Fold this protein.
Amino acid sequence: MKKIGVFTSGGDAPGMNAAIRAVVRSCVYYGITPVGIKRGYDGMIRGDFENLGPRSVSNIIQQGGTMLKSARSKEFMTEEGMERAYQNVYRNGVDGLVAIGGNGTLTGAHLFQERHGVPVVGIPATIDNDLIGTDFTLGYDTATNYVVEAIDVIRNTASSHNRLFFIEVMGRHAGFIALRSAIAAGAEATLIPEKDTPIDELVGILEEGLHNNKSSSLVIVAEAGESGRTFKIAEAVQERFQYYDTKVTILGHLQRGGSPTCFDRVFASRLGVAAVEALLAGKSDIMIGREAKVITYNPLSEVLGKEKPIDDELIRVSKILAI
Ligand code: F6P
């Protein structure tokens, strides 16, 4: 193996830059030429390749976003798009790929290696933490830390005015961001797509809080891929429970950028080194992860399309502590 291509695709996540840096520098360490592919599969189709070196990735470990840029490419999922991408990989002499991204990115990587035989290793990077085969995905720790900071700020104003706040966080099909940040910020209730919480139950929780002398309440809602979901829930609750003045805050993309935490930087560094070493050891079609502190190498076919279970113990803890 003489050249390894690296790209980021799908929604950006803090720590992607640290992972790119780790891949590039590990390549150089092992005498391999690292090649950056811009805008994910889109750049692969258009031939946007660039040789990188250790100095190309200086001063990026602390930056959110991705220096290679990102995109969601529908074209890549067509036979012609994938063929064009393969021609460019071949023409540029790239012998192996490191794909950094979430479920969509890794699905593309799996299909590409299956169809064209190019060795591919995936690094799980999405703030949603919705991939199995790894306890954390890259960016999740950073995103939840920003979310907690925002909730803390909202808590100040909520308690000053005796208000009920519904705070919507990201998580297209998953409640990991919502549940973790709700525990860390001491929220009264959490609504996640994995568990149905009827409005009656939610109103019951809020009434109980009032009974227990709470002067304000915070409900964390996972967006669950449904636009307007939180406004609808807030309206339904307001109709039944009028004690508090009710407000809605959507955190949106504020939670997806920003400087990565120490955890995500170290995690990205370990994943990047492991990805290059895996390719050099002849591994392919796998996702590098970390389970119980150990770096893992799971076949992509065993990771993709499966729902990561939410930790029931965290739900229990959050309920006990919300009294
Ligand atoms: O996959 C990460 C994520 O941030 C989801 O939580 C969210 O639903 C989605 O991306 C938003 O994507 P976009 O920024 O492309 O609208």
